[in-house]
Amino acid sequence: MKREDLNYILQKADFPALEELYNKINSELKIVVLQSPVQQTLLQPIFDPISKGEFYGGEILVTTTIVQLSKGDNTYKGWAMVQDDNEKLSLYIAVCDGCFGAGFFKEEIEALAAQTVQNIQKMQKESNKRVNATRVNFDLMAQG
CA 80, CA 97: separation in Å to the nearest integer? Predict the structure, then answer.
């Protein structure tokens, strides 16, 4: 599991499980919020397959948070950016990011992320199955 993948994966995690993990971390480490969850808009780049270039398709709302975790004299920073206006989710993921980088609670974070990846793949397969069920095959053979 790579640290840079956590932000995306944990946004889709089971929220009560993520909250439980945050509470466990909060009980053992000192968490200081350096940048409170703040809403921003970002321009969304879109790839144009015809011109092979990019253009901006619009803006998306995100919430970002920066935290500092302390254990003894050691401090570590964590960061998160999540879609929409979701302050708690941004805070929880920023704390997990800092812990993962520091090596704290790494097994628990990886277990939650792995379960989330399985859930994402399962939902994608179900979605693909529904789409494939509506696929129509056209017989384009010339009749002579």
Answer: 7
Between CA 139 and CA 137 the distance in angstroms is 7
Q: How far apart are CA 70 and CA 56, in angstroms?
A: 39
Handedness of CA 26, 30, 36, 40 (dihedral sign): negative
In angstroms, the CA 39 to CA 34 distance is: 15
CA 108 to chain centre: 16
Q: Is the Cβ–Cβ distance between 72 and 29 less than 8 Å?
A: no
Question: Between the CA of residue 2 and those of 26, 57, 80, 101, what are the distances in Å?
Answer: 23, 29, 14, 10
Across-strand partners of 31? Answer: 69
| pLDDT tens digits, one per residue of 65-90 | 999 999 888 999 999 999 999 999 99
Encode pLDDT of 30-56 as tens digits: 999 999 999 999 999 999 989 999 988
